Amino acid sequence: MVINITYMKMKKLIYTLSLFLMLYSCSIDNYDAPNAVLSGKVIDNVTNEPVENGGVNGGTVIHVLEGNSKQPIICNSFPDGRFVNAAFFSGDYKIVALGAFKMVSDTIHVSVLNNAEVEIKVLPNVRLNTSIVSRDASTITVKVEYEKVHESQVLNELCVIWSTYPNPNMFTFSGGGQKIEKVDSQNLSSGEKIFVISGLNNGLNYYIRAAARTNAAGSYYNYSKPIQTQ
Question: What is the C-alpha separation between 91 and 108, in angstroms, rounded?
Fold first, then answer.
């Protein structure tokens, strides 16, 4: 009988201790959820236009650092230069953008309280514009206008990409293709280049973008705004 009473007491003690540890553990893991949103866009400091990029495929990356932290929060940009991240806590942050450009300011400081929007002003490596010159049933002639911005850089490639899906880039162009012209030996700074795209399906709508790359670190591509064939 004594043995049974002792066993029951021990069992009750173990149960109580286990319940206490479980509740304590839950209270430790019950962290506050993020309560702030950081959004913005990367814009050309001269034209005030958004700086197009490749999106998640080799596009602009925003590094956000809180206080003295060395570990950045990574925000990928949409192809049109916008970015948004809803996983922030209110606080003071530093922003550094990486892409086919030079930031006007090395670092941007921003206080995030609930919601904050910031414009990251840059000078792109290459400014691009794309237009359709002519089209027949299966062929499109495209004109690419280009301007290298930084004198110290060398223009390496001029390209055109097309796809049946919006915002094609140099790494993703489903239903389409790409043409690449190596121009590093030509010492180009600004001008126009004609590309002829053939083998198109006359019944489909294609999205077309120009792309260019200099010898700047990171091997990022600049892009034009997309145009459509229909």
Answer: 14
**Per-residue CA distances from 23 to 10, 28, 32 (Å):** 20, 9, 17
Residue (of 15, 17, 53) closest to 225 by Cα position? 53
Identify the pLDDT of residue 70.
87
How do the domains of the chain map onto residue ranges? 36-124, 126-228
Query: Quick check: do 36-124 and 126-228 share a fold?
Result: yes
Rg (the chain; Cα; Å): 27
Dist CA 1 CA 35 (whole Å): 58
pLDDT greater than 70 at residue 182: yes
- Does residue 11 have a pLDDT over 80? no
Task: Tell me the mean pLDDT in the region 142-169.
Answer: 98
User: From CA 215, how far away is CA 125, in angstroms rounded?
Assistant: 10
What CATH number does the domain located at 126-228 have?
2.60.40.2060
Residue 34, pLDDT score:
77
